[in-house]
Q: What sequence folds into this?
């Protein structure tokens, strides 16, 4: 989301591909244990920047295996011709501005013109609304010291997540990558008034719950999949719009390779006025 709102590239790695120890202050009770869902990754002005950053961050350990490296990109990811691209932009769980939806579809059209096979097959697994509910449940368990559900409750939620991972594994047997928005709107005015749950977000003139702007961000986070953020357009107000390239588990190099294709087709980083 910081990449989307600021017009830069970034990579959210497969969960546990980058060791987060020391990345930021954490409660003493969680100082060494892995934190569920949360990852850290590089941001930059090009795919080359973030690929270099990821190489550095994963050089020592990947997935807890000393000396392991991320697998190479899928051979199909190096050319648009024959690339199997799924797009998901329309979903009742995630009201999204026309500008953000159009930006994703226009990239799909450029890839199709370059030889990719582009379609909108829908998401694997349960509805996005159900996926987002599970994401928020597990996020609450990961982030809130006051989480009060039983371990058995958490295990039941984790089982649902693993079923979703299996659904995605089958999905990525048919598609190489999934393109989706990162957020429902470009950057919006900073809102601090009122309780978080009472705030509203304006999507093309319609007010929706403020926390709906997290739905797209949780799409890849819940199953722990890699997602590369790419700036692809500007709104009528001149604000950046990005999209995310989501790939299979441990398919980080595949999403980066496809992001490089999109960067070439789309023109890459656009400096703001006065940069």
A:
């Amino acid at each position: 989301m910081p990449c989307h709102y600021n017009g830069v590239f970034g990579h959210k790695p497969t969960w546990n591909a980058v060791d987060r120890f020391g990345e930021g202050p954490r409660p003493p009770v969680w100082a060494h244990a892995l934190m569920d869902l949360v990852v850290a990754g590089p941001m930059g002005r090009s795919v080359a920047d973030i690929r270099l950053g990821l190489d550095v961050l994963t050089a020592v350990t990947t997935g807890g295996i000393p000396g392991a490296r991320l697998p190479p990109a899928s051979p199909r990811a190096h050319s648009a011709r024959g690339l199997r691209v799924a797009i998901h932009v329309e979903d009742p769980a995630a009201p999204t501005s026309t500008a953000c939806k159009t930006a994703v579809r226009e990239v799909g059209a450029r890839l199709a013109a370059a030889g990719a096979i582009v379609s909108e097959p829908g998401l694997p697994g349960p509805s996005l609304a159900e996926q987002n509910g599970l994401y928020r449940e597990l996020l609450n368990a990961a982030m809130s010291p006051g989480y009060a559900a039983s371990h058995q409750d958490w295990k039941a939620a984790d089982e649902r997540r693993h079923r979703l991972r299996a659904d995605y594994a089958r999905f990525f047997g048919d598609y190489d990558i999934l393109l989706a928005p990162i957020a429902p709107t470009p950057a919006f005015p900073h809102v601090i008034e009122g309780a978080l749950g009472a705030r509203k977000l304006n999507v093309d003139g319609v007010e929706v719950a403020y926390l709906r702007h997290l739905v797209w961000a949780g799409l890849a986070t819940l199953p722990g999949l890699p997602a590369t953020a790419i700036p692809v357009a500007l709104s009528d107000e001149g604000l950046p719009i990005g999209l995310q390239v989501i790939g299979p588990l441990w398919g980080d190099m595949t999403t980066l390779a496809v992001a490089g294709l999109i960067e070439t087709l789309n023109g890459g980083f656009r400096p703001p006025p006065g940069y």
Summary: The mean pLDDT is 91.
